[in-house]
Hints:
alpha/beta, nine-stranded mixed sheet
Amino acid sequence: MTTLHLSAAEALAGTLTDGCVLAVGGFGLSGIPADLIEAVRDSGVGGLTVVSNNMGVDGLGLGLLLEAGQVRKVIASYVGENRLFAEQFLDGRLEVEFSPQGTLAERLRAGGSGIPAFFTKTGVGTLVADGKPHADFDGERYVQERAIVADVSLVRAHRADTAGNLTYRYTARNFNPVVATAGRVTIAEAEHIVLAGELDPDNVVTPGVYVQRLVPATAREKPIEQRTVRRRDTARATVSPEGAFR
């Protein structure tokens, strides 16, 4: 049963412990549960293992937890936008487990599906496969990857109903759905919350059975990691009578 809470801190109450495994949806700064991340920081919990596609950027997203010194280990597929992450890793303060992006998504999906492990060709013959079991199938070599089950999963939804059913918008529909299923306790922040039955069942991505707690998301400007633009006068294209661009 999903319970509705008034604040992110209230939604997190009693779920976090030192050393717990925390899975977080989103991709960089896109589709991240920003309110819940800030509430984790404010809780003071430490020694966290954070599972996420990446660790945000300095001063934003999961970078806030690095700044607060609350993270012991990171399981991610990409960490290139965070200088503090690099410093803590090189200083030996942060343990890092790299997982190819598709493999990471499947590890989370498998964890939510009750599948303890699976085999994949990705990473065979690289450092990613060191120390892991291997097997041959149809003449091809595969490496075994273990599923991920988080103590707490944090996700961001566009719309939710009071039964915990979730829909996502644009790039938020990246890691959020698999993170939502992989948590023993899943907490969702949603931009719009409606009464049970008001969401079109055909549009529901995460069924409410996976979501234990729900909180309204705070309206905020969504940050952009890297803004790449062209000058307006060079961005315009003209069309010749023949229809060719010039």
